[in-house]
Amino acid sequence: MKNFSNLYIFTFAAVLVLLVAAALSFTALSLQGRQQRNREIETKRSILTSLGVTSTVDDAETLFAKYVKGSLVVNPAGETVSEEAMTAQDVKEQVGRGADRKLPLYKAEIDGQPYTVIPVAGKGLWGAIWGYVALQGDCSTIKGVFFDHASETPGLGAEITTDKFRTPFAGKRIYEGGRLVSIKVAKKGTYTPDDHTVDAISGGTMTSKGLDAMLKDCLTPYDNYFKKQQN
Fold first, then answer.
1. Beta-carbon count within 10 A of 217 CB
2. Fewer CB in a 10 Å sphere around the end CB: N or C, the chain?
3. What is the Cα–Cα distance from 79 to 60, expressed in whole angstroms?
4. pTM of the entire structure?
């Protein structure tokens, strides 16, 4: 049996580690473009879902180009600061604070009717939650919503992704008496049907609270923009 010196063993191991690392790096770099495209397609599908348009991986880009007419970034004064929503199809968060806050949105049109789609992001029980809220032309009435999460509990908080939870948002109004009130996610057992409230998730109290706060925090900064569309 041949004996190898410690130096030989360490050198061989180091070279092997470097070769494996190089191979992994090459694989990661070669897949980067595909991963980015997959993220973009998934985001487009999410936006389309909020608009009530069913899509697949194969037709999402075609349908997105058909219905989504453009994107903007506005400031809290309701003024357009850019006609490209941060160049992104994967925008999930507003950027900045105060008067410098940048607020992305998407403009869509279906069967001649205009819609505005707002990205929202917040925190659930275990991690990030996010989604899109599609508003009708009056920027007051909800057309539809899409929500997703990073790590909410299956069968409980994770139910925010289901049609059963999302469907009741359609037709709800985020304004009351000229004031932006958002949509309240009522605690289970306390829900009373009205234009501004949906029922919470059974057993998902903390996720429901997080989603309630997310909607309020993310929609309120658009108040001036929404009011300009209503005038």
1. 14
2. N
3. 30
4. 0.82
